[in-house]
Batch of 3 targets.
Target 1
Amino acid sequence: MADANANAPTFARAQRYLGDRVSEALDRLDPAAVATAVAILARAPATFVYGAGRSGIIGRAFAMRLVQLGLTAYVIGESVTPIVRRGDAVFILSGRGESSSSIQTANIVRREGADLIVFTARASSKLAHIATALLTLDFPEDPDRARFAPLGTLFEAASLRLTDAIVAELLKARGESEESMRRRHAIMV
């Protein structure tokens, strides 16, 4: 299929490609799986978030928003993060779903009896098989991906949109508002 915008600047083509591919993948998410994940997060005494690399950066942003919603949230790997306990929720972002650190984290979560929410681009991954709630995306390979969205770019862009959309669901479920979140926003000195 010829690219109708072949003469457009790379930036314009890349941002359109990213937006379209991420939107298509998120539109295919199972609404029941999203509802299950939201319910787990809403009832958990504490939520722990984990991701390696760029997924971890997005996980940190998600944990921050959970705190701003009035929930208790931690980033796994920080020195002040306590041990996960039965009833807690752990949200792991992992594009491949096979990294040893993510699998090790998931094994601890299962041993301690917490609920495991996995967001991955590989439904057949090791992490996917042990999830309490599985949110999975599919990005069919195409010739433009490596040029406009190298490495894990599509998954990472989708991760930010997914977690922000989950925040919107929790905002509604908890009767919160932007103003109540703003009051919990960290003040930087």
Target 2
Amino acid sequence: MVRFVTNSEEETELLGTRLAKTLTSGAVIAFTGDLGAGKTAFTRGLARGLGIEDRITSPTFTIVNEYEGGRLPLFHFDMYRLNSSEELFDIGWEDYMVRGGVCAVEWSENVSDTLGKDSILVEIRRGETASQRVISIEGVEL
């Protein structure tokens, strides 16, 4: 596990961009962190690093947002409203896994038994100041 400290939303996005450059087809990014911790900001960086220029928003009410047009497609999930892994399969998780993109999964702890042992774990926590974040990344070399 590697730990980073960012001091702005822009720095958090840049770390996401850096991670995106290492990703291959089928990668799963499993996010944990409180509301407002910066998971969507990190995902904006992932999208930028994949060459996606769309506006990236939280999929809280849609469960998943799909972004194409980059080196790999990005499937941005928010599992906050799911109560079990069974619900994940109901929305077509297996279909997304075979489409060859990157799955960025917010609130991954709600479906952790489904994501697989090869997932990249990204934990984002608030730091000492309002804009500081402590980000731990496990499962990939940066």
Target 3
Amino acid sequence: MQRQASAVWQGTLKEGKGTLSAASGVFKDVPYSFAKRFENEPGTNPEELIAAAHAGCFAMALSGKLGRAGFTPDKLSARAKVTLEQVEGNWTITTSHLELVAKVPGIDRAKFEELAADAKATCPVSRLLNANITLDAKLE
């Protein structure tokens, strides 16, 4: 199985501009720029898309693990906070911090924490990232 997305960049790093597109068509020619990435100008950037991918992947992985253990979640609200910083002169994604608020009827805290930790470690995006991945999981 393969998925695709593409980027087009025109111009210099700081003054240039680019667009991002997904082969599925879910987004097409979405603008991005140096200011959107490094100066907090409104708009998306590669790290935000990685954070979205990580949160979505983790939530799905946890849902699968809960289901195999006999639990059906009412709701899994996941967020990923990706940190981009300089490491030895290179921009590097150093951490992805997952936050989860979950409503899972009938599960005890120990089992919930075990399954959440397993999902954090084994979801495909976690396995892709060469970063420190942390998790705060709250059970409602």
